[in-house]
Amino acid sequence: MTLFLAVLIPFVGAALVALVSRLGRSHSAWAAGAVTLASLAVLLPLFALPFGGDTLVQQHDWIPALGLNLAFRFDGLALLFAGLILGIGLLIVLYARYYLSERDSMGRFYSYLMLFMGSMLGIVLSENLIQLLIFWELTSLSSFLLISYWQHRKEARQGARMALAITGLGGFALLGGFLLLGHIVGSYELSVVLASGDLIRAHPLYVPTLVLVLLGVFTKSAQFPFHFWLPHAMAAPTPVSAYLHSATMVKAGVFLLARLYPALSGTPEWFWLVSGAGLTTLLLGAFVALFKHDLKGLLAYSTLSHLGLITLLFGLSTPLAAVAGVFHIINHATFKASLFMAAGIIDHEAGTRDMRRLHGLWKFMPYTATLAMVAAAAMAGVPLMNGFLSKEM
Predict the structure, then answer these.
(1) CA 269 from chain center: how many Å?
(2) Domain shared by 166 and 83, yes or no
(3) Which residue, 64, 79, 236, 302, is the most exposed by fewest CB within 10 angstroms?
């Protein structure tokens, strides 16, 4: 029941936060923080398992007549992503309390955030592919609510609709890919799928399965040619950008790439499709970022570039590349979330994100400046920073 409880707590917490918000703005923030900590506390005793090489699988009857079970899996990859979702989520809860203005509904924001957090935990802890897909679609819906949080802004509504349309269509493709995987293997359980790599790669339906799964991955992680929705989603409040677009939602695609890596990788089709999309996104994102004056716009295209790098690494299908890809997921989440929050602080205090109008802020905001420079140095791969290590690998 442990893993099921960890996923359930944020969903229950969404309703709790909405109720508590009537007591005051700070109360809803405290409630959201308590919900996040509770989910983390449930998982904490399990953190040692992956380091011992163990994988925990828990199953609960859902609809036995149809053979449907709720199945959850906790291994190294699940530990990494659950840690990112809850750890950075806790920081975002604190940050949002001071970022949002008096006019913004704190209860509504934190309710949406808890829904999204629960959906992301569901993706990374799922053992069943169909169950994973349900949570996958829930992230699309909850991210739509978060991106369009400032409903009075036209660009926020448009960005949310675009994100929902692209990721929703990718979800349909992913459903087809999962159904084909289940047909080839005879099971939707990840334990069986991951152990059947040779069977999947030798099957006549391998290529259509791979293409459909990758369509789901590329739309969620904003890989070329589906990259255009991510910059438009930056119309969301900065806490949303820091959480969804650096640490969690766009990482769902690369998570699935890493999760299905043992079953689908190692073929020329995998190499050309995954590496090709990753390399194109890496170069395109970096190039466009050079011409952006808006801080969040620059960070959005930089995020595309880094996601392209991670995708490219997984496409290379070598042990070191896969390790470097996973390591860079951690590094990118930490320094990019930091930079988004620094950009939010600058926007909040200076009233603009236009870099042509911003200068001399060190004198007025020394702490923000120091943190931003450390995070930027990590992203640039300066020696002794975490970004240097993963880029060197």
Answers:
(1) 25
(2) no
(3) 64
C-alpha distance from residue 193 to each of 67, 187, 348, 382 (Å): 17, 7, 48, 40
- 227: nearest Cα among 166, 274, 271, 269: 166
Within a domain: residue 120? Answer: yes
Residues 329, 321: Cα–Cα separation, whole Å: 12
Name the least confident of 37-46, 306-315, 369-378, 382-391. Answer: 382-391
Q: Please list the alpha-helical segments (H only) found in the chain.
A: 2-20, 25-43, 76-99, 106-125, 129-147, 154-185, 190-194, 197-202, 206-220, 229-232, 238-242, 249-259, 261-264, 268-270, 276-289, 295-315, 319-350, 366-380, 386-392
Within 10 angstroms of residue 194's Cβ, the number of other Cβ atoms is: 19
8 Å CB contact between 223 and 217: yes
Number of domains in the chain: 2
CB 134 within 8 A of CB 122: yes
What is the per-residue DSSP string for 259-303? HSHHHH-SSHHHIIIIIHHHHHHHHHHHHHHTT--BHHHHHHHHH
- Residues of the domain holding 45: 1-127
- Give the pLDDT score at 279: 95
- pTM for the whole thing? 0.92
Query: 338: Cβ–Cβ under 8 A, 6 or more apart, which residues?
Result: 371, 372, 374, 375
Provide the 10 A C-beta neighbour count for residue 155.
13
